[in-house]
Amino acid sequence: MNARTQARYQARAKVIKALAHPTRLFIVDQIADTEKCVCELRDLIGADMSTVSKHLSVLKDAGVVSDDKRGLQVYYRLRVPCILNLFGCIEGVLRANAEAQADAMHSN
Amino acid sequence: MNARTQARYQARAKVIKALAHPTRLFIVDQIADTEKCVCELRDLIGADMSTVSKHLSVLKDAGVVSDDKRGLQVYYRLRVPCILNLFGCIEGVLRANAEAQADAMHSN
DNA sequence: TTCCTATTTGGTATTATAGCCAATCAGTCT
DNA sequence: AGACTGATTGGCTATAATACCAAATAGGAA
Lengths: 108, 108
Prior knowledge:
Two copies of one chain form a homodimer.
Chain A: H1 3-19, H2 22-30, E1 36-37, H3 38-45, H4 49-61, E2 65-70, E3 73-78, H5 83-106
Antiparallel strand pairs in A: 1-3, 2-3
The first copy, chain A, binds a DNA duplex through residues 21, 23, 37-39, 47-58, 69, 71-74.
């Protein structure tokens, strides 16, 4: 794998890595159709505000969300809606995993 | 976020986490339409075979790939093709990021 | 059986990530 | 201006991920 290829996959991995955390997936779901401020997300998640803020900065740095400061609040919204399509696929993987596990049980 | 919700997002995150590495993304691309054995992937990637094997086990454990031992070789294939759709979306994010960066340059 | 080859597993050092607290920053309101 | 609120940043510790080497496993061939 040469340097150019390596760089391309690294850029892709950065975006996916930003999504690879339960809290951040939850955030993406929450702001999918309605923007929300950090304090709202903090309440929904139940973690320290600084923790939520850092998760949001990871998502923002990857280009997944965009922010908009209005008054004291900063509102975050999903910048790239196609990410939502991913969730259906992931659910498919989980279903397939569950089936495979069930099959393995039967064959014992 | 209650325990049930937490568990669901954790399960999803596991699958996405399995994809969140340049080498593993490369592997997914490589076996998208043709299964490949570990040694072929090792040559393409240029890392230690044990490293490649561990990447494959992460993907397999998440249910993304399946393996098939024939003779001395173990062949890996993509188990859930819809993951390929993700790549188009990711490229879209990267393009949007590049544009945003270009815009930021102009406004200086 | 013994040798050889492909793969996996164990051990370990290095690096990255997560979460909380405390401190800081940036607006708002009086 | 000074007090207040929402958000971000820095610092720290704990945990997880990565990559290599070396050792073990599994199957094929002599």
